[in-house]
């Protein structure tokens, strides 16, 4: 599905007592049974499952509101109030979204390698960074079989704060990505643009993808 208008894109940072991690994921899976989302992914950063990150994408505000008002989501809110110790909802301005043609609905143990990167771009370097990262992402999804998902966005009203989500089929696919010419060109092209960088390796808890989603402004 090639999107003509910017979809709704959110990042959730969720903290939970490790003993409640499995309950949190199950409540999220129950809530994600609705079909309004184009894409959803959740993973945890630390082994215990204390820090969790979820990315959700909806085609438009109508679908997003249906999601918020659904019985499944309301049940999740009640459950999460008892489980979460912290919740941060970050609205993103989509800059690039591309997923593979095949639909995905995977939970539990899997081989996916997920990286979420938070990048602070120097003032005055926004266009230069955007040009470099978007060229790299486009080349990556076109040339690399092992890339399942590439998503990039900027924090709403903070265009110099970037976030990217990358889902690879397995470790080998990720290692091959690091050796590609387009990735190395991206590093050189954006070397003097990046002010800060936080790289989060996530263990995927689930990923749901309607398949063949593409958006670029």
From TrEMBL:
It comes from Lactobacillus amylovorus subsp. animalium. Residues 113-202 form the ABM domain. PANTHER family: ABM DOMAIN-CONTAINING PROTEIN, QUINOL MONOOXYGENASE YGIN-RELATED. The keyword Oxidoreductase applies. SUPFAM superfamilies: Dimeric alpha+beta barrel (SSF54909). Keywords: Monooxygenase, Oxidoreductase. One of its GO terms (molecular function) is monooxygenase activity. It holds the Pfam family ABM. PROSITE patterns: ABM (PS51725). InterPro entries: ABM_dom, AI-2_Isomerase_LsrG, Dimeric_a/b-barrel. This is Antibiotic biosynthesis monooxygenase.
């Amino acid at each position: 599905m090639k999107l003509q208008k910017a979809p709704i894109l959110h990042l959730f940072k969720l903290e939970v007592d490790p003993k409640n991690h499995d309950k949190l994921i199950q409540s999220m899976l129950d809530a994600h049974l609705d079909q309004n989302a184009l894409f959803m992914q959740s993973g945890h950063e630390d082994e215990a499952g204390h820090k969790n990150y979820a990315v959700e994408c909806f085609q438009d505000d109508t679908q997003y509101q249906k999601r918020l008002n659904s019985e499944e989501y309301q049940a999740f809110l009640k459950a999460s109030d008892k489980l979460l110790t912290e919740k941060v909802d970050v609205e993103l301005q989509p800059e690039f979204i591309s997923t593979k043609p095949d639909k995905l609905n995977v939970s539990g143990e899997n081989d996916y390698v997920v990286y979420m990167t938070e990048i602070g771009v120097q003032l005055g370097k926004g266009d230069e960074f955007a040009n470099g990262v978007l060229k790299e992402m486009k080349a990556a999804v076109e040339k690399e079989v092992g890339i399942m998902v590439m998503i990039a966005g900027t924090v709403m009203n903070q265009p110099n704060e970037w976030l990217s989500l990358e889902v690879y089929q397995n470790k080998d696919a990720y290692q091959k990505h690091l050796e590609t010419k387009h990735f190395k060109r991206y590093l050189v092209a954006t070397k003097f643009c990046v002010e800060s960088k936080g790289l989060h390796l996530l263990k995927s808890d689930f990923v749901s993808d309607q398949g063949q989603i593409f958006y670029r402004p």
